[in-house]
Write a structure and sequence with these properties.
Oligomer: single chain
Strand content: 5-15%
Number of helices: 22
Radius of gyration: 37 Å
Shape: elongated
Length: 553
C-alpha cells in the first residue's frame, strides 16, 4: 500500500513538473491579489483571484467583498488596477465575478468540461507564496449541483491563504477555485466549478437581492436591453449620480433604445439641467427613437418642472407641454397620452377640458378608480357636486366587496362629498369602511372628523366613542378634550364634562371654548361662583357666546 501511494505521488510529481513548463509561467500572470475597502477607505480584506478573459473578468470569493465600496486588483509585478464593476455574485456559494480595468492581462482558460473523479489536478499557489510551485493532487469526489456544475473534494490540506486560488487540469485549464474550509484543520480541501462563477450575471430579478445590495461596488448592467432598463429602475434610483451613470452607459450600449434617452433626459430635467435634457431628447430623435415616447417624456418633464415653480427656459411652458402630449397622441393614440393631457389641462385650470380627458381615458383599457377621481377633482373645482358625486361613485364601483385598501382613497373622498351634501349617515358608512381598511394608519384627526359628522346625525354614542379615541391618540391636543367635555355635557354627564374641560384648560389656559364649557358644566352642578369665574375668563378671551350666557342670566 505504501509503495502504491509512493508511486502515485511520484507520478503526480513527474506530471506536475512537466505541466509547469507548459503553462505555469502564463498562469502566474493571470493570478491576482484583490484588496477591498469600505466606504471610509478602511481596508476590509485581501484575497486571491484570477483573470479569465481579455475583458478584465476576475473570479474570487464573495465574503472578501461584502460591505466593500471599492476594490483593486494587484498583479505579480505589483501593478494596481481598479475594480470597475460587480458582474455576478452568490453568497450561498461564496463566489463573485468582477470586472477590472486590466487592458493587457494574460488570462487563464476555463476548461470546457467538468473535472472527473480521479482526475489529476493542480492547485496554483497564491502570489505571495515564494515557492511558486503548484500543489499536485487529484479529484477525490465530484458532486454535481445545479445540473451543470461540479463541486470538488481534493485529498490535500490547503491553508486559508489558498482561498480562491485556481484548480487547473494538466493542460492548465481552470476547473474550479479553492474555497475556505468550513472546518479549520481538515485534511481535505474543496473547490467550486469556475464555470458556475463565470455564468453568474446581473439581472432585473437579482437587482435588489441581498447578495448585490450588500456590496457597494457598482454593478454591471445586464447585457439585454430590457433587463438593463429594469435593473436601472430597481437599483439606480437610490443614488442620483449612480443612476445617471447607469443611464449614460445604457445609452452607449443600446443607442437605438428610446427609453435610454428618455431616462437620461428626465434625470437631467429633475436635476435642473434643462438644456442637457432637451439635447438628450433631440439625440433620441436623431438616433431613430420612437417620437411619441420622446414627446410624452418631454411633456411630462415640463409639467413636473412647471409645478415645481423653478426658473425655466421660455420653451418650458404648459402650452408647449400640452402641444407635445397632443402630438404624441395624434401619432399614436395611447390612453397614457390622453391622461397626460388631462393633468396638463388641470394645471392650466381648464377643468372642464381636463375632466373630459380623464373620462375619455376611462373608456379605454386604462379605466381605473384613479382616473375617475381625477375627473371628480375637476368637477369639484367647477363646483358641480352632482357630477362630482357621480364620478366618485364610479371610482368606488371599480372595486368589488369586500373592499381592499386600494379602495380607501375613493371611499374617503366620497365621504367628504356626502358630508358636504348633508348625507351624514352615508358619509359615516364610507368612513366606517375606510377605518376597517386603514385601521393601522389612522390618526386622531380621522376620529375627530367622524365625530363631527356623527354629532350632526345624532349618533351620540358613536360620537362620544370617537372623540374619546381622539384624546387617547393625541393627549396633548386641547381641542379634543374641549369637544369631549361638550359631548359629556350634552349627555348630562357633568363630572366627566368638568374633568375633560379642566384637562383642556390645563393644556391651554387661553382656550376660551374650554372655559365656557367648564362654566356651563359647573353651573349645571349648581356651582355658581366657579361657573361665573370660568364664563368671565371666556369673555375676557373674546368669547361672545359666554357673554350672551351671562347677559341672559
Amino acid at each position: 500500500m505504501i509503495r502504491k501511494l509512493f508511486l502515485i505521488s511520484l507520478c503526480l510529481f513527474t506530471l506536475s513538473a512537466s505541466a509547469q513548463t507548459k503553462w505555469l509561467k502564463k498562469a502566474r500572470k493571470a493570478q491576482l491579489n484583490l484588496v477591498s475597502y469600505d466606504a471610509s477607505g478602511q481596508l476590509l480584506h485581501s484575497t486571491n483571484g484570477f483573470l479569465i478573459d481579455e475583458e478584465g473578468t476576475i473570479l474570487s470569493d464573495y465574503a472578501s467583498f461584502k460591505g466593500a465600496s471599492r476594490a483593486v486588483a494587484i498583479d505579480e509585478k505589483g501593478n494596481e488596477y481598479p475594480i470597475l464593476t460587480l458582474v455576478g455574485a452568490s453568497s450561498l456559494y461564496d463566489v463573485i465575478k468582477l470586472r477590472a480595468d486590466i487592458r493587457k492581462g494574460q488570462p487563464l482558460t476555463l476548461s470546457p468540461v467538468n473535472g472527473l473523479k480521479g482526475q489529476q489536478v493542480f492547485v496554483l499557489p497564491y502570489l505571495s507564496n515564494k515557492s511558486g510551485l503548484p500543489t499536485a493532487t487529484f479529484i477525490e469526489e465530484a458532486k454535481t449541483f445545479k445540473e451543470l456544475y461540479s463541486y470538488y473534494t481534493l485529498p490535500v490540506k490547503l491553508s486559508e491563504k489558498s482561498t480562491s486560488c485556481p484548480v487547473v487540469n494538466d493542460e492548465g485549464q481552470v476547473l474550479g477555485l479553492v474555497q475556505m474550509n468550513a472546518k479549520p484543520g481538515e485534511d481535505k480541501s474543496y473547490a467550486i466549478s469556475a464555470a458556475y462563477v463565470n455564468d453568474l450575471k446581473t439581472s432585473a430579478l437579482n437587482a435588489n437581492s441581498p447578495d448585490y445590495r450588500d456590496i457597494l461596488i457598482r454593478k454591471e448592467l445586464p447585457s439585454e436591453a430590457s433587463q438593463a432598463a429594469s435593473f436601472i429602475f430597481l437599483t439606480g434610483t437610490r443614488d442620483t449620480a449612480l443612476y445617471l451613470d447607469y443611464v449614460n452607459e445604457y445609452v452607449r450600449r443600446f443607442p437605438s433604445e428610446t427609453n435610454g434617452y428618455t431616462m437620461q433626459a428626465e434625470m437631467l430635467a429633475a436635476k435642473g439641467d434643462f438644456a442637457a435634457a432637451d439635447a438628450a431628447w433631440e439625440a433620441g430623435a436623431k438616433a431613430g427613437g420612437v417620437q411619441p415616447e420622446l414627446d410624452y417624456s418631454q411633456a411630462r418633464s415640463i409639467l413636473a418642472a412647471v409645478q415645481s415653480e423653478r426658473q425655466l427656459p421660455e420653451t418650458w411652458s404648459l402650452d408647449h407641454s400640452l402641444e407635445l402630449a397632443q402630438r404624441a397622441e395624434s401619432a399614436d393614440p395611447q390612453p397614457i397620452y390622453t391622461a397626460l393631457q388631462g393633468h396638463i389641462l388641470y394645471a392650466q385650470k381648464r377643468y372642464a377640458e381636463a375632466s373630459e380627458k380623464f373620462v375619455a381615458v376611462n373608456k379605454t383599457s386604462l379605466r381605473s378608480a384613479e382616473h375617475f377621481l381625477y375627473a371628480a377633482q375637476c368637477q369639484q373645482m367647477l363646483s358641480d357636486t352632482t357630477a362630482l358625486l357621480a364620478l366618485q361613485d364610479s371610482a368606488v364601483a371599480c372595486f368589488s366587496k369586500p373592499y381592499t385598501p386600494d379602495a380607501a382613497p375613493a371611499l374617503l373622498m366620497r365621504a367628504t362629498t356626502l358630508r358636504s351634501l348633508g348625507r351624514f349617515r352615508d358619509a359615516i358608512k364610507d368612513l366606517n369602511e375606510y377605518e376597517r381598511l386603514m385601521s393601522s394608519s389612522l390618526n386622531a384627526n380621522f376620529y375627530y372628523q367622524r365625530y363631527q359628522i356623527e354629532m350632526q346625525c345624532r349618533m351620540f354614542q358613536q360620537a362620544l366613542s370617537d372623540i374619546e379615541h381622539a384624546t387617547l391618540m393625541e393627549p396633548d391636543e386641547p381641542l379634543y378634550f374641549a369637544e369631549l367635555a361638550g359631548t359629556h355635557y350634552r349627555f348630562n354627564q357633568l363630572d366627566e364634562a368638568v374633568y375633560a374641560a379642566r384637562k383642556a384648560i390645563a393644556l391651554d389656559d387661553t382656550f376660551a371654548d374650554a372655559h365656557r364649557i367648564l362654566g356651563i358644566s359647573l353651573r349645571a352642578q349648581k356651582k355658581e361662583a366657579e361657573a361665573r369665574a370660568e364664563l368671565q375668563r371666556a369673555i375676557d378671551l373674546g368669547d361672545e357666546v359666554a357673554k350672551d350666557i351671562i347677559d341672559k342670566q
